[in-house]
Specification:
The complex is a heterodimer of chains A (about 425) and B (about 400). Helix content of chain A is about 25%, strand content about 25%. A twelve-stranded mixed sheet of chain A has the order 4-3-5-6-7-8-9-14-13-12-10-11, sandwiched between helices. A four-stranded mixed sheet of chain A has the order 19-18-17-20. In chain A, helix 7 crosses helix 8. The two termini of chain A are about 30 Å apart. In chain A, about 45% of the residues are buried. Chain B is of the alpha/beta class. Helices cover about 40% and strands about 15% of the residues of chain B. The chains are: A alpha/beta (about 425), B alpha/beta (about 400).
Chain lengths: ~425, ~400
């Protein structure tokens, strides 16, 4: 979609949201705006961004468009624990989800065979549990209990990933064999953990059908990617998804390994300090949905930071190329005023063949502790060298590197490789 | 002095906003919010002291020990017990486990309970004996004939639940105790976790052998469970755990346990929370009991009548206001999963209510057939909040209405 056509589509979305949702009408009126006032890109900036609290507070009555209920046909309801524990209830039309998914996956030729006309991929999910720790996460529920209305089988996962008992891991591996999926939808940290166990147990993760792997939920670290690629081998299509529960696929990794963002189904902005950033500069992603008749979102501030790169990609896709930086609330804030994104921290760590897992945590005083679980490949100089690199990247703040044999997940079950108690308390 | 009225401003959490909206806290059956005086008592201990108790002669330890033991006295006085008859533990579950394990029952010993018991009152007894449960009727009232029948083959223990956390029914515990005493010499253990927060009880009048409750359901901090035991019964009870704090003497050949109640209190306790518990009781005792009772009745009526006025809801519990606390468990239509509705009521409307099986799965299954939505009010709630809750639920259920096609 060209810039003009995309903006015209965004204007139509504004008009639709104004006419059909109580929240957005009030949002515009509170700011003295009417859809007719939004004639060009500068006018568009007059609309204050909307955010997750708006959609949480006003769901469903204020944000669901007229004519829909939560049980309307093709409405998919979901409850997200949120990447940073900032949970959300929302809904999405199944065909919007499918359209966004198709646009995103189209950047990767290795996923072309996943959807054939008339077919419906068998999907298994191995990711942080959404259910409470007395339901799915105990592993006591049946496969049938954990099959979603769309047919996705949710494999049992403990809230505290590294404390998962062996029998529950064996159960997940057994159920994967039973399901024979086309598609594995995983959190990369969780799946890397599963591959380590599968290797230890002499198990394979495969399917008589062509298995594809999509990683989402949290930032895919280079360490996790290395482990997954090494276990699955070069033949299996693996792709890193950019997504949000409430919006579905926002982008995907192409077969050349670069991340593209979906500007066909969304009108996108990358914003810092209220202005669009230059190419090559990090900015928060604002999303305006296009042709979303259920929950239209206008200038929805996602809290996710990206760097738009502006260059063409060899893969042949026209979708813009971005670098993933991570959540604003997880960025490391330095005393110098600089911030270092989770993506930048991950770049410093690299694929580190000598470790299985890591987590960098900034405490409220600003000090950083990097904890890692080593494997048998660790050499004496590996950790000191990393400590030097991290200290340089995060100066003047102190950094301590610790080898551990256990790192806890968040209460939600998610494992974040980079967290900052400073950023979580305030704006980036 | 009984002049004070419960004041919402006393509860800082009630001033909280989420996404710019105030909240209504209606999950008091699970735990209550804490008034500022309790919070200050907890903070005060940490700010000005922080020492351990019963372990030193230095000034701070002595001060902390004094505050801790005077809190025990406050709790004991509130229920008409002597201070040495109150064991301070972590929660009601631990208190009931202590009695169940400590009685040293013979394998297969017969225990009579009630179907509407909380898991805390079911599982410890099932572990040590053969538990028979008295039935309840369709509204959750105890089937007295069945209860009497169960007593006819004399049990060794009768475990009573004063008030159900699912139906809100307050059982006629005095009458039940009298029936037990007339029928057999069973040990009587009362779970008062849901009833004591709503009105004072006197253990002498009730004539029970043991009574368990938790302070966090009556404005106190979490982590404090209390076990009352008549002194001669406590003295005969075997400690559940052993270790530091419960012995007077240890040598290479053996040890000598401390006197009651200390022999049951192993290790360092929740010092600050126990001190905060006394502040909670002081707060409750300063309230006018008549006004408090009237408010409770008003809240109960609003909850019950609101449910009965809505055909889409099934009230789990009696359709009247007699002998019940301000609590309503609601069975929703299958199209409205209780967990999702509770989440939406919270995040979209600001009403904090409970969903699920309430840790009393047998009675929820029996009366409701599945998960319920529980709304439980307490002294800082107001009738308009209940009305607002039902309006929010009405609105939400329209959005969960069956599909109309298209």
């Amino acid at each position: 979609m060209t810039g003009t056509a995309a903006f015209e589509a965004a204007r139509q979305e504004i008009a639709y949201a104004f006419e059909n949702t109580a929240f957005f009408r009030k949002h515009m009126e509170d700011n003295g705006l009417h859809p007719a006032d939004i004639k060009d890109a500068d006018d568009f900036l007059r609309i204050p961004p909307t955010a997750k609290p708006d959609y949480r507070r006003h769901f469903p009555a204020g944000v669901l468009a007229k004519g829909y209920t939560l049980n309307s046909p093709r409405v998919m309801r979901f409850q997200s624990s949120g990447t940073s524990g900032d949970r959300l209830n929302s809904a999405i039309l199944s065909y919007d989800l499918a359209r966004r998914q198709a646009t995103a996956l189209a950047v990767n030729r290795r996923f072309d065979d996943l959807w054939r006309p008339g077919s419906r991929p068998r999907t298994c999910r191995f990711a942080p549990p959404n259910c409470s720790d007395v339901e799915c996460a105990t592993g006591l529920s049946t496969l049938e209990d954990r099959t979603l209305p769309d047919g996705t089988v949710v494999l049992s996962v403990a809230h505290d990933l590294m404390a998962t008992p062996e029998w529950q891991i064996v159960k997940a591996l057994d159920e994967l064999e039973i399901c024979e999926p086309d598609l594995l939808l995983v959190d990369s940290t969780h799946f890397a953990f599963l591959t380590r166990w599968a290797r230890r147990l002499g198990r394979r993760i495969s399917s008589p059908r062509t298995l594809h792997l999509v990683s989402g939920y949290t930032l895919m670290t280079r360490v996790a990617r290395r482990e997954i690629d090494a276990f699955l081998g070069a033949d299996m299509p693996v792709g890193d998804m950019i997504g949000m529960s409430e919006l579905g696929y926002l982008g995907f990794e192409c077969h050349k390994g670069r991340r593209h963002i979906n500007d066909q189904d969304f009108y996108l902005e990358f914003v810092r300090d209220g202005r669009a950033v230059e190419l090559g500069t990090m900015g928060e992603l604002y999303v305006t949905t296009l042709d979303d008749t259920l929950v239209p979102r206008i200038r929805y501030a996602t809290g996710d930071y990206f760097t738009p790169l502006g260059d063409a990609c060899d893969c042949g896709s026209d979708l813009p190329v971005v670098r993933i930086e991570g959540r604003a609330t997880q960025a490391v804030r330095l005393r110098s005023g600089r911030t270092v994104s989770p993506g930048a921290v991950d770049a410093v760590v690299g694929d580190a063949p000598w470790m299985d897992l890591y987590k960098l945590e900034q405490d409220p005083t600003g000090a950083c502790t990097f904890r890692y679980v080593a494997n048998s490949a660790e050499q004496a100089g590996d950790a000191p060298a990393l400590e030097t690199r991290l200290s340089e990247a995060l100066e003047p703040n102190p950094v301590r590197v610790e080898a551990v044999d256990y790192i806890a997940c968040e209460r939600s079950g998610k494992f974040q490789a980079c967290v900052s108690h400073l950023s979580a308390e305030g704006a980036w | 002095m009984t002049v004070k009225e419960p004041c919402r401003d006393d509860f800082p959490a009630l001033g909280r906003e989420i996404d710019g909206r105030g909240i209504s806290y209606l999950d008091n059956g699970a735990t209550t919010l804490k008034p500022r005086s309790v919070i200050q008592a907890v903070c005060g201990y940490y700010e000005s002291n922080g020492a351990n108790i019963h372990r030193g002669k230095h000034r701070l330890s002595e001060e902390a020990s004094d505050a801790y033991e005077s809190s025990r006295t406050v709790i004991a006085r509130h229920i008409g017990a002597a201070a040495n008859e109150v064991v301070l533990l972590r929660n009601t579950s631990e208190a009931l486990n202590l009695v169940a394990a400590g009685l040293d029952l013979a394998p297969g010993a017969r225990v009579v309970g009630c179907l509407d018991a909380h898991h805390s009152q079911l599982l410890p007894w099932r572990r040590v004996g053969h538990l028979d449960l008295a039935r309840v009727d369709a509204h959750g009232r105890l089937d007295r004939d069945h209860f009497r029948k169960l007593l006819s083959d004399p049990p060794e223990v009768v475990v009573l639940t004063h008030c159900s956390n699912v139906t809100g029914v307050v059982h006629p515990v005095r009458e039940l105790v009298a029936e037990v005493r007339a029928a057999c010499d069973a040990t009587i253990v009362l779970d008062a976790a849901q009833s004591l927060p709503h009105g004072r009880l006197n253990v002498r009048d009730l004539d029970v052998d043991f009574m368990a409750f938790s302070m966090h359901k009556m404005l106190g901090p979490t982590g404090v469970g209390c076990l009352f035991g008549r002194s001669e019964r406590l003295a005969a009870l075997r400690p559940l755990t052993v270790g530091g704090g419960m012995v007077d003497w240890v040598d290479l050949d053996g040890s000598v346990d401390r006197r009651i109640p200390f022999r049951f209190e192993t290790g360092t306790p929740a010092v600050a929370s126990v001190i905060g518990s006394a502040a909670a009781i002081r707060y409750l005792e300063e309230l006018d009991p008549d006004k408090r009772h009237r408010r409770e009745q008003d809240l109960c009526a609003a909850l019950v009548d609101g449910a009965l006025a809505r055909p889409a809801l099934t009230l789990i519990g009696p359709p009247d206001h007699t002998d019940r606390i301000a609590l309503a468990s609601l069975r929703l239509d299958a199209a409205a999963p209780a967990g999702e509705v509770a989440r939406l009521l919270s995040d979209s409307y600001g009403y904090m209510v409970r969903s699920g099986h309430m840790c009393a799965q047998p009675v929820v299954t029996e009366l409701a057939g599945g998960e319920v939505l529980r709304v439980s009010a307490y002294l800082y709630n107001e009738v308009p909040e209940i009305e607002g809750f039902y309006q929010a639920l009405d609105e939400l259920l329209t959005w969960l209405a069956p599909p109309t096609g298209g």
